[in-house]
Amino acid sequence: MNQNKSNRYTPLLMAVCIIIGIVIGTFYANHFSGNRLNIINSGSNRLSNLLHIISDQYVDEVNIDSLVDKAIPQILSELDPHSVYISAKEAQMATDDLKGSFSGIGVEFTIRQDTIHIQAVIKNGPAEKAGVLAGDKIVSVDGKPFTGKVVTEEEAKHRLKGPKDTKVKIGVVRYGSPKVHFFTITRGDIPQKSISAAYMLDDKTGYIRVKKFSETTYAELLIALAKLSQSGFSNLVIDLRDNVGGYLETAVQMANEFLPKNRLIVYTQGRKQPRHEYLSDGRGSYKDIPLVVLINEGSASSSEIFAGAIQDNDRGTIIGRRSFGKGLVQKQMEFPDGSIIRLTTARYYTPSGRCIQKPYTMGDESLYAQDLVDRYTHGEYFSQDSIKHSGPAYHTSIGRTVYGGGGITPDIFIPEDTLGMTSYYKRAAMSGLILQFAYNYTDDNRLKLNNYHDMLELYNYLKKQNLVERFATYADHNGLQRRNLMIRRSHKLLDQYINSRIIYNMLDEEAWNEYLNLYDDNIAAALRVFARHAAFPKKPASKPRAAKGKKIASLTPNRHPAPSSAATHRHAHAKK
Fold first, then answer.
1. 3-state DSSP helix/strand/coil percent for the chain, to nearest 5?
2. How far apart are CA 500 and CA 513, in angstroms?
3. Rounded-to-integer distance, Cα 349 and Cα 7, Å
4. If DSSP codes are grouped into helix, strand and coil, which group holds residue 269?
5. pTM of this prediction?
6. Which of 312, 314, 371, 508 is catalytic?
7. Which of 160, 238, 433, 471 is buried deepest, with most CB atoms within 10 A?
8. 576, pLDDT greater than 60
9. What pLDDT, on the 0 to 100 scale, is given for residue 556?
10. Would you give the distance in Å from CA 35 to the centre of its chain?
């Protein structure tokens, strides 16, 4: 009986198997014949299958890895301006910049006439220990000539950097010697300082310039503060101009040093990221010192976190121009091949509750990149009245009005100084002729210039050398026609730019900053604030009321969800 029942269903089972076979066969036939794919219509499946089809059927051989490297940035560019992809080749350089050190030989260089010119040798670094000097020109690396068109910044770093304790042999030509000198250098850890200057502006006022927020910045800050303490500072200027940011945690650590206990520093929140608050712990050693923070349109991200925490807590005075306006937080994720993406996962909010991210359109980076140019065109760099606030009004702990939606607006506005600016100066600066002249002058006069170890001493010597006239002659021989009237109008700017570069070449970055600050309107404004004992903001005469449609946020921490140019010569510096 059971056998008959089994025989009865056999034809049915065979029919089902045949149908299944036809369906599977049709799927694969369509799949590999280029017809429309009968698969789940999800983006991830489509992308994966597209790459598989290209690899399997495209007319020519295709490097899929290279194709992916080009495709991923395009995908991320459709999100926001700060979600980015970094290839495995570039990933090490990108992470080194914020780690505070890298492995190399320890020189700063510039490329002139297809040859590496060593600008400075890092003190106690591998190159100095091997006998390399500033002014040496590298002409070979590991026995192979290294001059001509092959010499690029990327290629130079590729050949000179390398794993710690590995060796590299360089050949250099030294000023005054016709022969090539050879040095075998053992690579080592080279510190990358994120604080480039810490010195006294006057008898009472310390100055610290922070270039970026790296892993080592907080430790460097403590060292800088200890150094200034030995000089008896009672006021402090922290310079964040042109600091594009770095690690959020570093900005929090730094702000904590200046804030009383239980003050909100910043909080972050995103679609998949619950609100996370960063509070001061009260252990900072400088909670009462009068403080001024300098910012400009180049100050972004962590710089804005620090400045926003100081401003919203009424802890100090912000001086300069409106900051960049980056209020998005990126999370870094690494792929197995070493490439990484930095994906925006949250926004950060200053203590008053404002997000200072400036407006952007998803997938349109051109308008976003144009913003700083538009600010210049609209006159914002020259007049505080030209600042356009795109976000709502908020209020600080004592009731001062601040705005979200486009950077940190300073308490004291300092316009960009354009006095003496001419088309001749712009061409001289932008063409690189001033940098070339300053380097050549330094190289030709090192023996004399080595006698000056102090910025003011060197500056007093340079003032007597008629350098602007020498430059005008040099520039005229190198394609920039002499314009005597413009040269007279721009004489001060030209003189400052030339002197600053020679001082940097012969001394160090701190001396370079110290010289530039002699003529800096922002520094002068900070010193006036301290002289008036006005670094701590005062409460408005009457507490402002929120206008209709505006938001007033409390600085009291809570657990409720939040609502979803400096002068041209200052910009010219770039460390290699």
1. 40, 20, 40
2. 8
3. 74
4. strand
5. 0.82
6. 312
7. 238
8. no
9. 39
10. 48
Q: Give dist(CA 103, CA 287) in Å, integer.
A: 37
| Cβ contacts of 272 within 8 Å, gap of 6 or more | 345
Question: Distance between CA 68 and CA 43 in Å, rounded?
Answer: 15
Give CA–CA dist 181/174, Å, rounded: 7
Q: Which of 326, 358, 397, 508 is catalytic?
A: 326
The reply to whether 169 belongs to the active site is no
Q: Is the pLDDT of residue 42 over 90?
A: no
Listed in sequence order, the residues at least 6 apart from 400 whose beta carbon sits closer than 8 Å to its beta carbon are 314, 537, 539, 540
Closest CA to 208 of 129, 306, 124, 120: 306
Q: How far apart are the first and last CA of the chain?
A: 90
Beta strand 235-239 with 291-295: parallel, antiparallel or unpaired?
parallel
Reported as type and span, the H/E element at residue 4 is helix 2-32
Is pLDDT of 310 > 90? yes
Strand partners, 394: 402
Contact 111, 128 (CB under 8 A): no
Three-state DSSP class for residue 203: coil
Q: Are 358 and 390 in contact (CB under 8 A)?
A: yes
pLDDT bracket for residue 240 (50, 70, 90): very high
Tell me if 76 sits within 8 A of 123, measured CB to CB: no
Collect all residues with Cβ–Cβ distance below 8 Å to 80 and sequence separation of at least 6: 328, 344, 360, 362
Per-residue buried b or exposed e for 482-496, using 16+ beta carbons within 10 Å of the residue's own CB: ebeebbebbeebbbb
Active-site choice (301, 303, 339, 397): 301
Cα(461)–Cα(412) distance, integer angstroms: 36
Is 548 noted as a catalytic residue in this protein?
no
Q: Is 196 a catalytic residue?
A: no
